Amino acid sequence: MSDIMIILPREKFKSLKGRDVRALIEENLPKVEETLRAEREEFLREKIGKLEEKFQEMENQLEELREFYEKALRDKELLTAERNKLRKENEELRKRLEERRSSQTVNDSFTERELR
Amino acid sequence: MKLTIKPDRGFGKVEVELGELSDEIEKLAERYSVPPERVIEIALAGEFRESKGELEELERKVEELEKKVWRLEREYAPLRYKAYGLSEDNKILAIELSGLIAENNGLRRFLRLPPNRNLELRKLISYYLQG
Question: Pick from B31, B44, B68: which is nearest to A16 by CB?
Answer without folding.
Answer: B44
